[in-house]
Design a protein that fits this description.
- This protein has about 200 residues and is of the alpha+beta class.
- The protein is built from five helices and nine strands.
- A hairpin with a 5-residue loop joins strand 1 and strand 2.
- Helix 2 (about 25-30) packs across helix 3 (about 35-40) and helix 2 (about 25-30) crosses helix 4 (about 50-60).
- The mean pLDDT is about 85.
């Protein structure tokens, strides 16, 4: 199974769940899987077994043939072009205030998946430190941030960039009066274990 298809399955599960206004935890409980596993499946970071996938599809009240309609099985495209009005807001399940994510694109390659988002961090935004199963690249488009990785603070200004292992707990702080914007690139290896 290609990384591209794995990513497509996860995105389709997440899209149907969000469309039906089902919380991640509720679907995980109904399907008998952990919230963490379902999150990894939805984000294309792990491959569900066939029984797990079919159970999730059933819990979403879908027939398998309806679920797989429209999924692309081949990469095929020579390039990906997204217009600004095609970006999709991402609703994160973790408790946060002042964080606005816009999904730009996702692309599966042989050994990894690239995901790009724009993140706006409002003045005084609040969130606990989080970890991801990706390498993360941040490029500051506007504003200033105090980026915390574990206990270290890195001061970032417009034009600055940062690359780090997302498994390290991290959070950006906006201590200014203006919204900061970052381009965020996530590099996932769907076959690798996170080591958590």
């Amino acid at each position: 199974m290609s990384d591209y298809l794995i990513s497509g399955i996860g995105k389709k599960l997440r899209a149907v769940r969000m469309e039906r206004k089902i919380k991640l935890t509720a679907l995980a409980n109904k399907a008998g899987v952990s919230k963490g596993l379902l999150s990894k499946i939805e984000n294309g970071r792990t491959v569900p077994s066939l029984p797990v996938l079919l159970t999730l599809i059933k819990c979403l009240d879908l027939l398998p043939e309806d679920f797989f309609k429209g999924l692309q099985f081949e990469q095929g495209e020579r390039y990906i072009h997204r217009k600004a009005d095609e970006y999709v807001p991402i609703v994160k399940e973790e408790k946060s205030k002042g964080f606005n994510y816009q999904f730009i694109l996702e692309k599966g390659f042989q050994q990894f998946i690239l995901e790009a988002v724009v993140l706006e961090v409002a003045p005084g935004a609040q969130r606990k430190k989080v970890s991801t199963d990706a390498y993360e690249f941040k490029y500051v488009l506007e504003g200033e941030l105090a980026y915390q990785i574990e206990e270290e603070i890195i001061e970032l200004k417009k034009g600055d960039s940062l690359l780090y292992d997302g498994r390290l707990p991290h959070v950006p702080h906006n201590r200014t009066q203006e919204t900061a914007r970052m381009l965020v690139l996530y590099l996932f290896n769907p076959g690798a274990e996170s080591g958590k």
